[in-house]
Amino acid sequence: MLQDIYDSITLVIINDLTLHYMIVLLESTSPSREHTLPIKEIKNIGENMKIINIRFLACLFACLTIILLLPCTLIFARNKNSTKASREQRIEQLEKRLSDLEGRAILSDPEFIIKKKVIWVCKNGHQHDSKLDGKCPFDNLPLKKSFTYQREKVFRRQTIGEQIAAAQSEQDSKGIKIGISGTTMFQTPFRLKGRNSDINGDFFGMGSMDIFFISRPALYTMFFADVEVIGGLSPDNQIANISFLNSDGVRLALNKTLNLREGWMRTELFGQNLIVVVGMLDLTNYFDLNTAANDETSQFITDALVNNLLLAPPTNGGGVTLIFDPKTDLKLKLGFQRGRNVKRSLTDKVFTIFEVDYLFNFFGLFPEGHYRAWYRLEGTNKENMAWGLRVDQKLTASITSFFRFGHEFTSSRFAKNNFFYSGGLQFKTPLTFSIRDSWALGFVYSDIASGENFSNLTTGSIQEYLVEAYYNLFLTENLKISFHLQYLIDSNIETIKRSYLVPGIRTQFDF
Question: Does 165 have pLDDT greater than 50?
Fold first, then answer.
């Protein structure tokens, strides 16, 4: 088709050029008068041919226009029909989705919410929603930024699941939550150095159970009570040491006797910047904290790796803890508790401790780390004063290092003061066998000049080393098992150096 059109156009152009050439040739060769008529006739024929050619070209242009526009028209019509069908299908899908949403949701009753609103106020009390030009339009006084609260009536859609969850949360806030935590620990010490009469390969086991009661009687206020029972035999009863191979044994007062371990009320004041805790306290829950070595139920079982040996707080008793937390990198803590062997009143002897806690990340070189320094005293005697440092610094997302140092002053009867050192590394996923497991290595070195204050088996100084490793296996949210290996090195209590290798296994459950 296109080839035929091309041939027709070419023929028309050739004919036109041929006629034009003939006219020019005749005029140039025969300018006499007798040839004038034929030349005019030839010109008339040429003019008629041009008219015919123009009409032919016009018809040809019209045919080309129809040929080119017809496919475009068909395509446009097809797309228009397709777009219309797609639009109708989309509207149908949206209507179906809206119907499903209306079937799953219900319109709640109107609610009033309290919202904080920024306003601009002049001295005369005129309020404005915006700063304007910085001056009140009524009295030309400068505007000061302030805020107020306003109630707004809102409607919102709630699913039935949201309504049930909200009702349960409201009920929980009014009631008392109860939790249960239990720990069992089995250990077998193997003697590496010491007297032949010392224990070797004996089996020891201890268990403890705590029942927690938690309630929130008011806004930013919490009540907590911990009832505990501990029973069993600890290897510390047979192996003389000051690091204490089983931390549960340190808390054992009466075997298999139920006792109130903690009971206190906590509230937050002054914009939640001041936390006050009053009641029967365990000061180690607030001072000398450590993210990698501070929990005897999931981390180390050696008591000297749970807390600083020279912190030496009294047994749990009545006290007050104040925590100033301005929600920055710095925290300040102050604690008071009744002292040891108090008989007349709580003010007979007061154990006082002060701590500074700073969050630091080494200018972005490492993740966050906590750096704490504490100072404690009990009475005014020099030998009842001590200070210490505590660091836990993340090296990577899965590796945390920790370190403790303690320095206790002694009386003039001793040649030097008491010193304590501990540290180690904790590893988490992906440096474990499975997700949420953890393992760690820790060491302890104690150099005690006043040994008689730490053990009734000696009157001299004590030097003791200890290393512990554990792997904590996460089974479920409520059940964990950990494997421990302790190495007590050259403990010189009773003037005889003893060394023991103590493997153990601990089971921990929480509900």
Answer: yes
